[in-house]
Every structure is written in C-alpha cells, then in structure tokens.
Design goal:
single chain, alpha/beta, about 25% strand, binds S-adenosyl-L-homocysteine
Length: about 240
C-alpha cells in the first residue's frame, strides 16, 4: 500500500488535505481516487490507515481511519558526519536512513570547506527515505555545528566509533566485540581527513573508540555507509 509522510497530527476522525506534490502524486501518478486507502505517518504518532475522502485533479483530502502501528521509540546508531559536497552528503543521508540511523549530526571540522548546506532539503530526503523503508521515525538532521561543540555535548555513556583513516586503529568489527551495551555514534571525517589536533582530541574524548575500515582510504560517503552497515549487523537491529 502507498505510504505517505505527512506533517499533520494523526488521530482517528481527523481530515486534512495533502500537500500539492503529494496530492498530484496520489491522483495523477498513482491514479488513486475517492475511497482508496493509503498509509500515513508523521514521525510522532505511529502509522495510520487513511481513506481518500475527496479527490480532485491534483488535490486529495484524507480521512484518518485507525492506527495500524504504534510509534516505536527511537533506535539505532547516531551518525556524526563532517560536511562533504552536496551529492555525497545527500546520498549518505538517504542511505543512512535506510540502514537505520537514529539521527544525523552534521559537523564542521578544520578541513571541511563548508559551503552552503540545505538542512531543510536533507530533512526532506530523510523523510522520503523513511517513507520507502517502512520505518516510522524520521531521523532528525542536526547542525551543522563545530566538531568541538558536538563532542562536548555528547550524551553520557555513549560510545563514539571514531573512523580514523590513519591506519593504526583496530578493525571496526574487532572493536565492536569489546563494547558494553549502550548508545553508539559513528564519526566520519571530511574529504580532507581529520587534523592532527582533532585526532588527538578525539582519541582523548570519553567513550571514543578509534577504528579502521581497512587498508584503503574510503570516500566519506562510502566510509559512513560501511561503518553503519557493520555496526547494525554486529550490534544493531540486523541481528533480530
Ligand atoms: N583525505 C584523507 C581521507 C579522508 S576520507 C586522507 O587522505 O587521509 C574521509 C573520512 O572517511 C575519514 O576522515 C574517516 O572518518 C573515514 N575513512 C575513510 N577511509 C577510512 C579507513 N580506511 N578507516 C577508517 N576511516 C576511514
């Protein structure tokens, strides 16, 4: 069934119009009309069955019928990602949402050449990726903030998997084997890598675990998605 991410509050009996692009998608592209059913979610209220109560050429009015799934608590690893160019950043956001990331923190570092980043566009990409995967929570895109500030504000007890391209850190899977249960964040640097000062600050940060992703230097997007995959498979929700 078609799943739509909407902004409106969801409760039985509510009725609201879809946005113009979603109305067009539903009526023109998918050829749905009055009486047809769709699933809707907003990232807060779980998943609901809805019926198209009115359909025009481009608009559609939805009536919310009943809840299908309750909202699950947030889960999965956090991704702390240095800003990279627009295309790899957008790919990383979409794929990280598919892989089950909890939220994404964008950071600036000494070597990011941080030009303009459209966080609203990244949030829309995250919403579309969530729509497609069936997940009900939409990972928040936070920042960009300086790496230093994000390190200082880390939740207590969180493990920071610091992907360090310098080559002398233990392999990621070996490092994961020794972790005690608790929240996990994965840190990926910019295309220019981390500066020596950042590397030593990161190695001294509480709960930080430097890891290697193998003998080749990966692009930041490849590194982020590989690390996320391994964490999900070894200690995340791919085990169930
Ligand atoms: N310009 C840097 C490479 C940066 S790659 C250099 O040549 O050294 C971008 C980011 O991806 C890195 O900061 C790191 O977080 C991650 N990364 C890439 N390859 C990695 C590897 N083999 N092991 C661990 N992290 C890696």
């Amino acid at each position: 069934m078609i799943r739509l991410h909407v902004a409106d509050d969801l409760a039985a009996g509510r009725e609201f119009p879809l946005s113009a692009p979603q109305g067009r998608y539903l009526t023109q592209v998918m050829r749905r009309g009055r009486g047809d059913e769709v699933l809707v979610f907003n990232g807060r209220d779980g998943e609901w069955l809805a019926r198209i109560s009115e359909a025009g050429k481009r608009e559609a009015l939805l009536a919310i019928v009943r809840q299908i799934r309750a909202q699950p608590p947030p889960s999965g690893p956090t991704l702390v990602m240095a800003l990279v160019k627009r295309t790899p950043l957008e790919t990383t956001v979409a794929k990280a949402v598919e892989l089950g990331v909890r939220e994404i923190f964008l950071v600036t570092t000494e070597r990011t050449n941080a030009d303009h980043v459209r966080v609203d566009r990244l949030a829309a990409i995250a919403g579309e990726a969530a729509e497609q995967t069936g997940r009900l929570d939409i990972p928040e895109i936070r920042g960009p903030d300086p790496l230093q500030r994000v390190l200082q504000a880390r939740p207590e007890g969180e493990t920071l998997i610091f992907c360090d391209e310098a080559g002398d850190a233990p392999p990621l899977l070996a490092a994961l084997g020794g972790l005690s249960p608790g929240p996990v964040a994965i840190l990926i640097g910019p295309e220019g890598g981390f500066s020596p000062a950042e590397r030593s600050a990161l190695r001294g940060s509480p709960g930080s675990v430097p890891v290697s992703l193998g003998p080749r230097i990966l692009r930041a997007d490849t590194a982020a998605l590989s690390a996320l995959t391994l964490v999900q498979a070894a200690i995340g929700d791919w085990r169930f």
